[in-house]
Amino acid sequence: MFGFRKVKAPVVSDDGRIRARFVLQHADFRLDVNLDLPARGVSALFGHSGSGKTSCLRCFAGLERPQQGYLQVAGELWQDSQRGFFLPAHQRAIGYVFQDANLFPHLSVRGNLQYGQKRIPAAQRRVALDQALELLGIGHLLERMPAALSGGERQRVGIARALVTSPRLLLMDEPLASLDLKRKQEVLPYLQRLHEELDIPVLYVSHAPDEVARLADHLVLLDDGQVRASGPLKETLLRADLPFASDEGAEAVIDGEVCGHAAAYELLELRLPGSEARLRLPHAALPDGHPVRVKIKARDVSLSLQRAEGSSLLNLLPATVESWQALDAQMLLTLRLGEQRLLARITRYSFDQLGIHAGQALWAQIKSVSLLAP
Amino acid sequence: MPLSKNDLDAILLTLELASLTTVLLLIIGTPIALWLARTDSWLKRPVGAIVALPLVLPPTVIGFYLLVSMGPNGFFGQLTQSLGLGTFTFSFTGLVIGSIFYSLPFVVQPLQNAFEAIGRGPLEAAATLRANPWDSFFSVVLPLARPGFITAAILAFAHTVGEFGVVLMIGGNIPGKTQVVSVQIYNHVETMNYAQAHWLAGGMVAFSFIILLALYGGRSARVRTL
């Protein structure tokens, strides 16, 4: 009766992808999801509160045991209700970051960090304590007790504590939701570094579109316990049948890399993959080649057939019309910009005046670009 | 010498009984409290009520039923006799069993409160950090519930020292064997030996005061460090 036997997770066919199917029935809520997520990068579980994001994440962790469940991570089977197989939470190679950090109040920061680390075999320790301390900037907090930390510090310790267990899958439940704007700005860059420096797939639960646009590579839209959409971030944001593109705040996310800086004007210049065009925005200098993610709102993009001369606009980029949809009196156009896509919202009148047709080449005039990830 | 040999024996026996009862109660009470704190079963309320019964029942009632069931014709007595252990009535073992029933709520309730106050959060954090349920009990629940354990231990010890009715019913009044301080005081008063009674009774007052001081003093000290 004292044994918690170590169950070996069966190995299944491996392309590294994360495959999950959960049916969780509560008295007043039903989660029914079927997901196939990439083996690397950040997948965002996005939805309103009550959409089942957190329940879904808890199923991945094994903290919730759904009536029907299947889960495969990094080529290992963690759960298959048809075979009656369920790997309990403490045997899953996960890192879980709780919304409120959930640090052990009786242990110092060091004790919290070592708690998980000393419970995995030394051979499996791929993330060193020093690396996590450095990555999250918490080296100076080691001897403090959790009660003496600020909200942002607590959350960073929570993330480091999850990382040093060298997880195969990092689960983050709205790690920024309990923080005020200032603390969010404090933690976000660390999340970004995580993304860039560690090769651990992340499932990131959020209801904040900005966080998702900034951090995610893959987007899952949950609504009322169901998956409304699941796909690469940039494509999914543009999908006209989803609320992202159809509402007032429709925006496109574009990745580029720094290729210059005009110091006299404080203008940063970005190269866009597959395009000759350069995107410019006011910002302090960044090293050349640094990856940068920006967002451009559909309502900040207007179109012209010729390159407008003598304009105050910084960005006039050649683009091609790909598709469009009508939204009341307006049209939402999807434009191709090199390898990426841009949204533009124009009136129906202008649409007819310009004679918009698929494959048409025109100029996108961009009024404002905001930097998501420095 | 104000205390007779019988008095000293009674004091030693009382301390022995209270210590043993406290240790056993912590061992028995912890899983019960843990279950009560975590379960959603319909049994939670009835079991909680049974555990709390000694709070409201006269000790003589508990003593009476224990006497009957542990006696030669009782269910428990038959069982112990068939195992060749004889009967536990009028024995130290009988006193320990009676004390466990009598003081059970004083251990279970503070522990249950402590476990409920910990909540699911730290346990879930421990599980996601690879701690199995036994491991997380020892590394998370025990340290976080420490104030609850201290309160439970002090209450169990003090309450056992103060019991009278249960002891008299199942243990009788056998010097050196089942004669505890509270019973000895009763004996002195019965025999008009008030001076001896004063020494023991005064000692009990001082003991109880110190226990309560430790309990409340310890609490406020903990509050200050938080």
What can be said about this structure in brief?
The complex is a heterodimer of chains A (374) and B (226). By secondary structure, chain A is of the alpha+beta class.
Structural description of this entry:
The complex is a heterodimer of chains A (374) and B (226). Chain A has 374 residues and is of the alpha+beta class. Chain A has two domains: 18-231, P-loop containing nucleotide triphosphate hydrolases (Rossmann fold, 3-Layer(aba) Sandwich); 251-373, RNA polymerase II/Efflux pump adaptor protein, barrel-sandwich hybrid domain (OB fold (Dihydrolipoamide Acetyltransferase, E2P)), CATH 2.40.50.100. Chain A is 21% helix and 36% strand. Chain A is built from nine helices and 21 strands. In chain A, a hairpin with a 4-residue loop joins β5 (76-80) and β6. In chain A, α3 (129-136) runs antiparallel to α4 (151-163). With 226 residues, chain B is mainly alpha-helical. Chain B has one domain: Orthogonal Bundle (MetI-like fold), CATH 1.10.3720.10. Chain B is 79% helix and 0% strand. In chain B, α1 runs antiparallel to α8 (146-161), α3 packs across α5 (92-118) and α6 (121-128) crosses α7 (133-144). Chain B is globular. The termini of chain B are far apart. In chain B, 36% of the residues are buried. The A-B interface holds A 2, 4, 61-63, 88-91, 94-96, 98, 100, 102-106, 115-116, 119-120, 147, 161-162, 165 and B 121-122, 124-136, 139-140, 143-144, 226.
